[in-house]
Amino acid sequence: MEVLKASISFLTTIPIKGDIEKLRRNLWIFPYCGVIIGLTVASITYLLNFLDLSFLGIVAYVLVEGINHIDGLADFGDAFFAPKSKKIQALKDTKIGAGGVIFVVLYLLTLYHGFLKANFVDIVLAQTLAKFCMLILITTSKPSWEGIASYIMEYAKKRDLAIASPTFIPFLLLNPIKFFRVFIISIAVALIVKYYSEKTFNGVSGDVLGAVNCIVFATALTFS
Q1: pTM for the predicted model, two decimal places
Q2: What percent of the chain has pLDDT over 90?
Q3: Overall domain count for the chain
Q4: Is the pLDDT of residue 93 over 90?
Q5: pLDDT band at residue 54, thresholds of 50, 70 and 90?
Q6: 3-state per-residue secondary structure call for the chain
Q7: Domain residues for 100?
């Protein structure tokens, strides 16, 4: 329970106090926390759709998960469009440029469309995959530099992925064809981000982890 509280505290804005030291040593909890976030977002989204207030779905999502991941996506977008010699500088820069604006706008538009068409289970699966893909980068890459990513990754082990994998069993049983389609596409996208980040930034940073969360979440919703 303490590990779950720590993950909710770290990955959401829900006012629960958690010990980040427990989270660092139990990173397998990420996808399980993703299930909770997904259930919360899906419930709110369905209620808003029922009330013809679907345009507030994105606002609700941001209120639940916070802006840290979106901020990472914005910085990643700036770095993506920056000249080769300035990509690392752009990723570290706290100011948001045109590239970041483009990434964030596309992300929010994709989420809006996804929330309209996706069913309850699709949203939960997409959020679970987003957190699982963060875990993939955490456990199979290295930090680009000292920061939040290096702090979180200190005790990362590949076995965390194995312990996290059972989160997908219910989705597999419910609709195996859809699950495998969305799963394979999402993992492929995460590995592309991983390859790009390792080649460009010599590893992954906190911004890259936030970006992969957003990109995979949007991708999984799109292909659900």
Answers
A1: 0.95
A2: 84
A3: 1
A4: no
A5: confident
A6: CHHHHHHHHHHCCCCCCCCHHHHHCCCCHHHHHHHHHHHHHHHHHHHHHHCCCHHHHHHHHHHHHCCHHHHHHHHHHHHHHCCHHHHHHHHHCCCCCHHHHHHHHHHHHHHHHHHHHCCHHHHHHHHHHHHHHHHHHHHHCCECCCCHHHHHHCCCCCHHHHHHHHHHHHHHHHCHHHHHHHHHHHHHHHHHHHHHHHHHHCCECHHHHHHHHHHHHHHHHHCC
A7: 2-222
